Amino acid sequence: MPADLWSLYSLMLKSRLFEEATATLWQDGLISGELHLGTGEEAIVAGVVAQLRDGDAMALDHRGTAALLMRGVDPVAIMRELLGRPDGLCRGMGGHMHLYSRDHLAACSGIVGAAGPCAAGFALAAQHLRPGTIAVAFFGEAAMNQGMLMESLNLASAWALPVLFVCKDDGWGITTQSQTVTGGDLQERAQGLGVPAVEVDGRDAGAVWEASRSAMQRARSGQGPTFIQARCVHLEGHFLGFQLLRMAREPLKEMPGITLPLTRAFLHARGAALGQRRAGLKQVLGAVLATLRDPRRDAANDPVQLARRALLSDPLRLKALEDQLEGEIDAVLASAVGEDAS
Amino acid sequence: MRSMRFTQAVDDALATAMAEDPNIVVLGEDVPLLRRNLLVRFGPGRVRGTPISESAFLGAGVAAAMAGLRPVVEVYMVDFLGVGMDALLNHAAKLEAFSGGGWTAPVVVRAPCGGGYGDGGQHEQSLWGWLAHIPGLAVLVPSTPADAGGLMLAALQHDGPVIFLEHKLLSETWLEFLGSGARRTVQYDVPAEGTRGKVPNRWKPLPMGEAVTRRPGTDVTIAGVGVGVHRAVEAAQTLDLEGISAGVLDLRTVSPLDRTAVREAVARTGRLVVVDEDYEGFGLSGELAALVLEAGISCRFARVCTRTTIPYARPLEDRALPNTERICAAVRELLQ
């Protein structure tokens, strides 16, 4: 049975439209603090979540909205939670980094790497209480340097826990390029702990679906965990209002406040030798330049667009689906900002 | 005197110390961007980004301090110390005692703390009481740019582990990075007095464990740290209009604690209100009550603290964190 690209596209587009709506709410100041979007990683989430069954569990990171939506959690309840309303999914107590749905066995965490032990524990309970069900952990590649996640890979391996460790690899840990602080290869790292590793194009929902199908079969049949490394691009960077993206996108506005103190520091009489200073400057500029060369500008890195292109052969069906989803999300937004029903 | 913003003052004092002492190194998450002004002046050898591996780099910071460096280890938020807590709880804090006084770890752990901008209960905690509970850790919570710079220097000269906490509402960079993201559509209740202020032309270390009176008062003593101090001053101004004279004591450091200043102030006013953004139970507020009781001072006591997990929703959060209304109400009740 191959992946049904129509249903994957439907999941992805729903999530994209939802998150674009929340981005507007954030810009309007209706969401006060940080907001981490999952735009750009929808193919990874859809390819995995589309295959989950009743009783399967999800351990999510600070970017869990897409997974919850695709899993079938009430979108109005999620949006109301992001707005901090008493009728939100968690009564306005959690917010987007701390979304929980007990009914779906789904828990987010704002602590990097925490999805590892969480999935291991969900999987342990699955072994005892719901044989044949599994747990999925979603996390970024920067979380792979967190001890608790590495320990969880080992634990899942040693106990043959039914876990899918899904690494959504966009190459950046906030403002740090992950390769600059990571030793070795992540798949080899997982393999070294006895966890089979596969790499997949995280922009391609069908490919993710295929890779995770085998991994789930393995987990459901008691053969233990799998590590999936799926590369993607976060279209809005780490979070909305991300300083590095602002520097790259609006240099005239952002850079004066940054360059003046930077120049003053660089030229300060007391400090390191010139070579060291130059190396420091190179690091700062490197991060900005890497952002400027950003793959975000390339539509080929947008998983939603990628899936859409494959469906253009049936424009009528495509339009009907898109109209339907846009209507759905408009209705969600209208309902979410409407009067408190409770 | 110069005028500086809060985090600018910390970084300026830190840079001054780094120019004097080549053994000071800075390491932590996203440090190359966050401390870029230090990076281009002192080079990547001394200003180093880390992976998101709190256990490893906190533990390494402690041991590097044992072996002669003076590391300033930055963690993204004090909440994330939970991940690498062993390095502080079981190692940094124990070393001096375990070694019979022969070995210490002069490491400075620098972390943003505090709430008021809608990030939820895993990113807005204060935790200074939780940290100060452990013998062997110094915990500094400055409330003004001048104190922030002076206490950073003190931390760098201290012969043991120091936790240096920067309240995000006071920090021009953290609040923008994590809160507004350059939006003009959000407002935060930022105490202006704490965000920008006069700082000395030449930084001098402030003594740790020395409180300062922010406002004299004869009817009641309000004590606190960080943003709580500013909330207390604001409350005192309101109470003044009602004919109540409330004094405000800025403890500045939770550990060591200026017990003498608290005792003296409370002995005069006979009333103590503790404003503490950290959790109410088993923390700073209870500690202040205990020290007054232990001194045999007869006084009326109240506290305005955070009692629950900090809610995400801003209206709920505003009620959960100490605010001027709650402080005023507590003072009025004590005076009844």
How would you explain this protein's 3D organization?
The complex is a heterodimer of chains A (342) and B (336). Chain A is an alpha/beta fold and 342 residues long. Chain A has 2 domains: 5-235 and 302-337, Rossmann fold (3-Layer(aba) Sandwich); 243-294, no CATH class. Chain A has helices spanning 5-27, 42-49, 65-71, 75-82, 115-129, 147-158, 186-192, 205-220, 243-249, 251-267, 274-292, 303-311, 315-337, and strands at 57-59, 100-101, 106-107, 135-140, 163-169, 172-173, 176-177, 197-201, 226-231. In chain A, the strands form 2 sheets. In chain A, strands 2-3-1-4-5-9-8 form a 7-stranded mixed beta sheet, with helices on both faces. In chain A, helix 1 (5-27) packs across helix 2 (42-49) and helix 9 (243-249) packs across helix 11. With 336 residues, chain B is of the alpha/beta class. Chain B contains 15 helices and 14 strands. Chain B has helices at 6-20, 31-34, 36-42, 54-66, 85-92, 95-98, 128-132, 145-157, 172-180, 192-195, 227-241, 259-269, 284-294, 314-320, 324-335; strands spanning 2-5, 24-29, 47-50, 70-74, 108-113, 138-140, 162-167, 196-199, 212-215, 220-224, 246-250, 253-255, 271-279, 300-306. In chain B, the strands form 3 sheets. Chain B has a 7-stranded mixed beta sheet, sandwiched between helices. A 5-stranded mixed beta sheet of chain B has the order 9-11-10-13-14, with helices on both faces. In chain B, strand 13 (271-279), helix 13 and strand 14 form a beta-alpha-beta unit. The mean pLDDT of chain B is 97. The chains are: A alpha/beta (342), B alpha/beta (336).
Briefly say what this structure is:
By secondary structure, chain A is of the alpha/beta class. Chain A is built from 13 helices and nine strands. Chain A is globular.
